[in-house]
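pipeline: protein-struct stage 2 | run 1193 | TatD family hydrolase
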Amino acid sequence: MNKAIDAHIHLDMYPETEMQEIVSDLTEMKVECVIAVSRHLASCKATKQLKKDAPNQIFTAYGFHPEQELPHEAQLNELISWIREEANEMVAVGEIGLPYYSRLEAEEQGLTFELAPYVTLLDTLLKLAAELAKPVVLHAVYEDAEIVCDLLEKHGITKAHFHWFKGAPHVVERMMHAGYMISITPDVLYEEEIRTLVRSYPIKQLMVETDGPWPFEGPFQGQATHPRMIHAVIEQIALLHGLTAEEAGSIILENTKRFYGLSTLY
């Protein structure tokens, strides 16, 4: 079994004991490291502290998750100032994006949802990423991904990682041609939509993730989400691309190291 990298996990959302067990398990489970993303300023600070305890196993991304209430201006300014100060320590700006699921839930309840302020927030954070010359970790699915692609082009950002992506074929085509990365979760073992996406997407633009502690179904039903699950994801990607697990694992590992600049960090 090759070593692998969990390219997207919310370590700060795990209970303390469980999080510590995960980090201590990584070497045995052949998980070289994880990319720990953040949701807001307090999350950023917690993620930074986790890295201090395992600097060669945890690499950090700082941002503001879109599936929550918008920050006040003072909160946003404080977050941006903090990210600027920590720019040399982080590997990306993230998680950032647009609130597809919050909007969907509101619309299903017959409520009005104003997307424009979230687009403005994302535009601000992408401008920051461009200023800092950092990759971005994106929460952007279905029709939201087209808006995000437009904003990426506006800011000249080419290093974009769409995590747990889902979208229409024409959007997938646009992302492939732009060279954007996507990461695949354990639901590739039981969701045909994701399996179809993997078949069509170049393996040189794939990474793997858990998005932990988000739970999964199928063969993972009832299990706590753990980075070790990414090995099963790699096996599925290998099958869908007609490769051996070793071949796929090697390519995906190199993809992740290259995208996040990890080869020069350890």
